[in-house]
Amino acid sequence: LGEGGMGVVYLARDNRLGRRVAIKVLRTDDPELTRRFIVEARTTARCTHENIVVIHEAGEHAGAPFMVLEYLEGKALSDYME
Question: What is the SS3 assignment for the chain?
Fold first, then answer.
């Protein structure tokens, strides 16, 4: 779906619940970025608001932290800014 300074976001399917999800994977070994990623996951998980994406799971795979997020279909912010 996209990538940025800290990681990459993939579109995936939650086979147990039959829904599409976004998986955000951190792609750095920098301990400070890893700490910020974990803080982002914890902060997002504590928030409940219609304008904040739902986080379903967080963990680590092959040494890379990840978050499984609600997938929302739409346009990129840059599309709206043009």
Answer: CEECCCEEEEEEEECCCCEEEEEEEECCCCHHHHHHHHHHHHHHHHCCCCCCCCEEEEEEECCEEEEEEECCCCCCHHHHHC
Q: Give dist(CA 54, CA 73) in Å, integer.
A: 14
* Predicted model pTM: 0.82
Q: What angle do CA 60, 75, 36 make, to 5 degrees?
A: 30
Q: What is the residue-level pLDDT of the chain in tens, covering all 82 positions? A: 988 877 899 999 999 999 999 999 998 888 888 888 889 889 989 988 888 889 999 988 888 899 999 998 888 778 888 7
Residue 23: both structure tokens together: 């998986």
Pseudo-torsion of CA 17, 20, 22, 25, nearest 10°?
A: 60
